[in-house]
Amino acid sequence: MTSLQRPMMIGKIHRATVTQADLDYVGSITVDQNLLSAANILAGQQVDVVDIDNGNRLTTYAIPGEAGSGIVAINGAAARLVQPGDLVILIAYGMLADAEARTFAPSVVFVDEFNRIVELDSDPGQAPSGSGLKTSAVPIDRPLPARS
Predict the structure, then answer these.
(1) Does 60 carry a binding-site annotation?
(2) Which of 4, 77, 92, 96 has CA atoms 20 to 30 A from the CA of 46?
(3) How many helices (H) and strands (E) does the chain have?
(4) Catalytic amino acids?
């Protein structure tokens, strides 16, 4: 008997500001190590980058940048799709067994305009109070994920 595996969002960095775009780089997205850790995203892990400003969506992999720097740098060909100053959402997914997927608490990281963490949550559809963002989601009552 095979176990059902579900691709689930395991981490998200919401509304980060792109600090640089470098076309002459091998590829990937460089992200402040503090943000990656808070979102439970590992170096080399596949991430989707969703550009709020222009609607572009791309898949790449994360590489850690200097902790505390606020860096969110688009590298390589993706620099044609995302520009410095654009707001982006980084989303990491993982394959979870069906039972685990039903109770798993993802790591959701909200940042300010300088890519500093302002709020941590585990509800993928939650909007932080006072942010001006809206949600159509019903709140999910889960504990915050354990941080290592």
Answers:
(1) yes
(2) 4
(3) 2, 9
(4) 28, 61
pLDDT digits (tens, 9 = 90+) for 75-120: 999 999 999 999 999 999 999 999 999 999 999 999 999 999 999 9
- For the question of whether the overall pTM of this predicted structure is more than 0.90, the answer is no
Fold for 15-115, please state it: Barwin-like endoglucanases (2.40.40)
Residue ranges per domain, the chain? 15-115
The residue type at 101: A
CB-CB contact of 111 with 118 (8 Å): yes
- Is there a binding annotation on residue 76? yes
Structural contact between residues 76 and 43, judged by C-beta atoms closer than 8 angstroms: no
User: Tokens representing 98?
Assistant: 């069906």
Residue 122 CB coordination number (10 Å): 16
Residue labelled with tokens 């595996």:
5
Token output for 41: 């995203």
Strand residues in the chain grouped as ranges (E): 5-17, 20-22, 28-32, 46-51, 57-65, 72-75, 87-97, 107-111, 117-121
Q: What is the DSSP letter of 115?
A: S
